[in-house]
Design a protein that fits this description.
Structural class: alpha/beta
Order of helices and strands: EEEHEEEEEHEHEHEHEEHEHHEHE
CATH superfamily of the largest domain: Medium-chain alcohol dehydrogenases, catalytic domain
Largest sheet: 7 strands, mixed
Distance between the termini: 20 Å
Strand content: 25-35%
Helix content: 25-40%
Number of helices: 9
Number of domains: 2
Length: 327
């Protein structure tokens, strides 16, 4: 039987629990294809499952939810995909591997003018930006917004996309002068270094005391409750991650106290839950990249065998933008 290499965890813990293992790779089953990966996306959700912040569905758990590659075999009943097709996916555990089988419901075809490495680096982050800006809170002309972690993978895409949608004022936060400059080069009008005082005070200053329509917050503990102080009355706080740790002791009453605010805790997988939604979201992403309104830059690459170091660097905030693992 064919073999492949995959990074799995047998228990939760630090980067050291990740093991590169050789496992059997059977032929693809009904409704599946076999893919040889060209590149694999690194995301905070991988850290959450590794650490135990998100509950693993089983052990051993193959890590990784985003990759791109070329189909090498197709299973019974597969008619929409063929050997040699360039494809990408998001949402199916097991991306940290050289080769794998995957259900076709997770797949989209990658346009010929988009490199596989680019596709691998943008599926989860880009479609997250898509649903946040187009569907969770619809950004358009007149919108004033704040996006935390503006120099992160989602943040760099979101700043450019918000600008393309005609947002009036795009404000970001970042954690160093270098990251501030990076975000300013990707669509943001203002970027606040949150290591240098209150970002909420600075947002109020930028907006003339009015506040923003929406705050997109993937940071969590370190930005709560100050994100709420940035909002206009009846504004929306979109909390879609927790890179600094989970928010504790959240009371709904605080939304009333700070201006009848709205909040939501969305996830990508609820927005791309059907093949039709997945392909529509990916199509919007591919289109905005092909238009050159959004540029996808790969900032770091690591060998797949060095995924532990990549996780450690991500958690230590040593990375910016997009990171790839190369099998």
């Amino acid at each position: 039987m064919k073999k492949t290499k995959v990074i799995r965890i047998h228990e939760n813990g630090g980067p050291d629990v990740m093991k590169l293992e050789e496992v059997d790779l059977p032929p693809p089953g009904a409704g599946e294809v076999q893919i040889r990966h060209a590149a694999i996306g690194l995301n905070f959700i991988d850290v959450y499952f590794r650490s135990g912040l998100y509950k693993a569905p089983q052990f051993p758990l193959p890590l990784g939810k985003e990759a791109a590659g070329t189909i090498t075999d197709v299973g019974p009943g597969v008619t929409d995909f063929a050997v040699g097709d360039r494809v990408a996916y998001v949402g199916s555990d097991g991306a940290y591997s050289v080769e794998r089988n995957i259900d076709i419901r997770h797949l989209v075809k990658v346009p010929d003018d988009i490199p596989l490495e680019t596709a691998a680096s943008m599926m989860l982050k880009g479609m997250t930006a898509e649903y946040l800006l187009n569907r969770t809170f619809k950004v358009g002309p007149g919108t004033t917004l704040l996006f935390h972690a503006a120099a992160g993978g989602v943040g760099l895409i979101a700043g450019q996309w918000a600008r393309a949608l005609g947002a009036a004022t795009v404000i970001g936060t970042a954690g160093s002068p270098e990251k501030v400059e990076l975000a300013l080069a990707h669509g943001y009008d203002h970027v606040i270094d949150y290591s240098k005082g209150s970002f909420a005070d600075r947002v109020r200053e930028i907006t003339g005391g009015k506040g923003v329509d929406v705050v997109y917050d993937s940071v969590g503990k370190d930005t709560f409750p100050h994100s709420l102080d940035c909002l206009k009355p009846r504004g929306m706080w979109v909390t879609f991650g927790q890179s600094s740790g989970p928010i504790e002791n959240f009371s709904l009453a605080i939304l009333n106290q700070k201006g009848s605010l709205f909040t939501t805790r969305p996830s990508l997988f609820a927005y791309v839950g059907t093949p039709e939604e997945l392909r529509a979201s990916a199509g919007a992403l591919f289109a905005v990249v092909q238009s050159n309104k959004v540029r996808i830059n790969i900032h770091q690459t690591y060998p797949l065998s060095d995924a532990g170091r990549a996780h450690a660097d991500l958690e230590a905030r040593k990375t910016s933008g997009t990171t790839l693992l190369i099998p």
